[in-house]
Amino acid sequence: MIVVTGASGGLGGAVVEHLLARMPADRIGVSVRDTAKARHFADRGVRVRQGSYGDPAALRDSFAGAEQVLLISGNDPAADLVGLHRKAVEAAVEAGARRLLYTSQQGAVPGNPYRPSDIHIATEAILDDSGIAWTALRNGAYGPLDQVLGPWQRTGVIARPQDGPVPYTDRADIAEATAVLLAGDRSFDGPVDLTAPNAVTFDDVAALASDLTGRPVERIVVEDEQWVADQIAIGVPEQLAGLMLTWYEAARAGHFAEATPLLAELLGRAPRTVAERLAAQEPA
User: What is residue 206's three-state secondary structure?
Assistant: First the structure.
């Protein structure tokens, strides 16, 4: 039995879809806050149980019988995520799971200014103290490119703070590779990086976009303070704007610069590149 948390979300749901293509549905379980949102999995034979990281008793029930549990990291900036992750790890251990997989983040090392890194570092330490086998999937940045780059198709401009090389990774590839690890015979102990094979800067992306569209796409560096002010002006809460800025600070300090081959090895093919993803965005 493999149990996936957060299966009503984008990443968790995609992992379950890939698992269904690889193994019988009755060997898959999901733990979700709202079981109605996972009815489409229940209809296909997946075990659906209610569970949330804040309810250890429900978690233990949703994890019952699981050999492996995939813990999707929380994303509520107002929550005590480390505390919630601790409860989830403890519930999985108490339920008898033999291995935990956790969706961490590339560059989750001390000194990384990107604030969520501290959450992942602390959670990995909890996993290490859990007494059972664990794998931290340090995923490369897999946000949608239109979110990362802004409205470049309309404006012809990528206007963001100073950045650094990042192996922007397709979430669909991350989901498939995670399912390969869960359903296969290969396992890893401790943290592993899952990234696209090449790290690129916004300058690189602007050049790729220019070649793709046949029109110039300009890269404009926005000063940090101005960028935060601009975000607040369009309605982004000041705390969130400040948090987002720490990602750029981490990128230009090189914390996301390393690209690794493991994702390609697990997929058995080349992961999608930024150029391919840009082409898929571009209207015909």
Answer: helix
- Which residue is it, tokens 């290969």? 186
Does residue 38 contact residue 32 with C-beta atoms inside 8 Å?
A: yes
**DSSP 8-state class, residue 115:** T
Digit-coded pLDDT (tens) for 21-42: 999 999 999 999 999 999 999 9
**How large is the C-alpha radius of gyration of the chain?**
20
Q: Residue 1 class from Cβ within 10 Å (0-12 exposed, 13-18 middle, 19+ buried)?
A: middle
The three-point CA angle 20-23-26 to 5° equals: 80
Supply the DSSP symbol for 179: H
Helix (H), strand (E) at residue 279:
helix 274-281
Tell me the residue ranges of DSSP E strands in the chain. Answer: 2-5, 28-32, 47-50, 68-71, 99-105, 133-139, 157-160, 190-194, 218-221
Q: What is the pTM of this model?
A: 0.95
